[in-house]
Amino acid sequence: MQVDIHSGPSFALGEITLPPGGAVRVEAGAMAMTRGDVQMTTSTRGGFMKGLRRSLGGESFFVNDYSSERGGVVGVAAVLPGDMTRVALEGSGALLVQSGSWTASDPGVEVDSTWGGGKSFFSGEGLLLLRCTGSGDLLVSSYGAIRPLELAPGEVMTLDTGHVVAFDESVQYAVRKAGGWKSTILGGEGLVTDFTGPGRVWYQTRNSSDLVEWMVSKLPAQRSS
């Protein structure tokens, strides 16, 4: 996948160049523009039930496949302001992506929301994990900038769950409370995740749950009659 990322890290736009005969799979609603010879086909990727399971995993029920006979460009953008990055899969491992971050991928990459290992990962955050396998590139997006890290074998790092974007399946993870009940309630922290290497981890500099809470705090108070 040839991708040029512009206007990051605040308002990133990914321009995917399709060679003659090339194709790319894009999350429904993520297309911002097309240029040249580009055709779009909408599907549920594998039938009605598989599309339904993807929607339960936090992704759209539908995906759009863009193809080109003579070559063209597809521009994609995420819902929230932030960055994008390209991640390569070589077929020997899997990448786990938080449900709102997958934006586009090569047709050779399988995005599975039925994988049972991630259904409770973001409990309390309203997010799930998608397991991406196969060979090809993915384009993942974030709220805020994306920070990539490489963990050595046995190296541990801790992230607030709302800041996780993606990580290699080789990385072990465990979700826990940030502290005792006092820290959880009064300290403003909820769940955190301990990651243990080896492998790659990508995290975002902002938390969309914090944005929602801030917006709610600015809404006029409801008065009972």
Please describe what this structure looks like:
This protein is mainly β and 225 residues long. It has one domain: Mitochondrial biogenesis AIM24 (Double-stranded beta-helix, 4-Layer Sandwich). The protein contains three helices and 18 strands. The strands form three sheets. Strands 3, 5, 6, 8, 9, 10, 11, 12, 13, 15 and 18 form an eleven-stranded antiparallel β-sheet that branches. A four-stranded antiparallel β-sheet has the order 1-2-7-4, with no helix packed on it. It is globular and about 55 Å long. It holds the Pfam family AIM24. This is TIGR00266 family protein. InterPro entries: AIM24, AIM24_sf, Trp_RNA-bd_attenuator-like_dom.
Features of this protein?
3 helices, globular, eleven-stranded antiparallel β-sheet, 225 residues, Double-stranded beta-helix, mainly beta, four-stranded antiparallel β-sheet
